Amino acid sequence: MSAPTTNGHRPEQPQDWPAALVAPAAAQPTEPSGPSDEADLVDLDPSVDEVQVLGWQVEQARGVVALQDDPALHEARSERERRADRRVTERIRTAQRGERRRTGLADVAGARRDRKEARWIERARTSKDRLLNPNRRLAATYRRYVALSTVPPTLIGFGVVFMSTIVHDGVVGVDGPWIGYLIEPMASVLLVVSLLVGFTAVQNNHKVPRGLYVLDAGLALASLLLTVVPWGLRYGFDLGSTLAHTLPSLLVVAAVVVQHLLHWVFRPIFAELYEELQPSRLNEQTADTVVLYERTRRAIDDQQIPLSAAGSPSREAIRKRFGVGKVRSQLAGDAYELVQRSLDPR
Question: What is the pTM assigned to this prediction?
Answer without folding.
Answer: 0.47
